[in-house]
Amino acid sequence: MWRRVASLSPMISSSSRSLALNQAASGLKLGESFATHMINPEERASPPKEKAPFITFVLGGPGSGKGTQCEKIVETFGLQHLSAGDLLRREIAMNTKNGATILNLIKDGKIVPSEVTVKLIQKELESSDSSKFLIDGFPRTEENRVAFERIIRADPDVVLFFDCPEEEMVTRVLNRNQGRIDDNITTMKKRLKIFNALNRPVIDYYKNKGKLYTINAVGTVDDIFQHVLPIFNSFEQFKESRHVNPKSTISSSLVESSS
Fold first, then answer.
1. Are 175 and 83 members of one domain?
2. How many structural domains is the chain composed of?
3. pTM listed for this prediction
4. What residue numbers bound the domain in which 42 lies?
5. How far is it, in rounded angstroms, from Cα 168 to Cα 178?
6. Residues 87, 146: one domain?
7. Nearest to 245 by CA among 128, 151, 99, 138
């Protein structure tokens, strides 16, 4: 069963705490030259494929419990888990040229350009033999969303939003004895403020498109998962796939627009 990958660098963790809302807006632009350097303009969009993969986005603030629910979804329905944060950390750990540049951006408190993150996701989608993907914690911003839809040329089939009261999320993070060792009430409230400011437009967008499923994230892990089960059971490809991890080949080119 998939486990969440621990942070490889304290500098990565500290960057999001230091992120101010005005940096979020300006940082998206200042990395454009880096994105252009890393990405061949001719490769910006994937050609259409015969059958689009099933894509789920999972959103929720720190302490919402989405990480635990991602594990249960992957285990139960056989989706391949992808995390934008994990992909960036892996790129840094592999000490590639791109990884070094990503690390320098993060150390400077800058945002990694959306095109860079999406290209890493695209690479995983293309190289996998799975046809069902769960993308955890992405898109974080409207700019992330637009880049994903432009490059991958697909909408998600499902967007899960784990909705949890702020007080509950703060309590969970401070009591779970993992994650950021310097978390406190003040830093948590800042993180939640940033999350709400950046992520709410994404949530509202998919709500208006009829793709958003809001999950009441209060209760035990099993109680919350009972709200998740009917969502996937409503899709034909999941009705017979409980408790298995099927693999089906998808072509290396991505993906026919589902809009």
1. yes
2. 2
3. 0.72
4. 1-52
5. 16
6. yes
7. 128
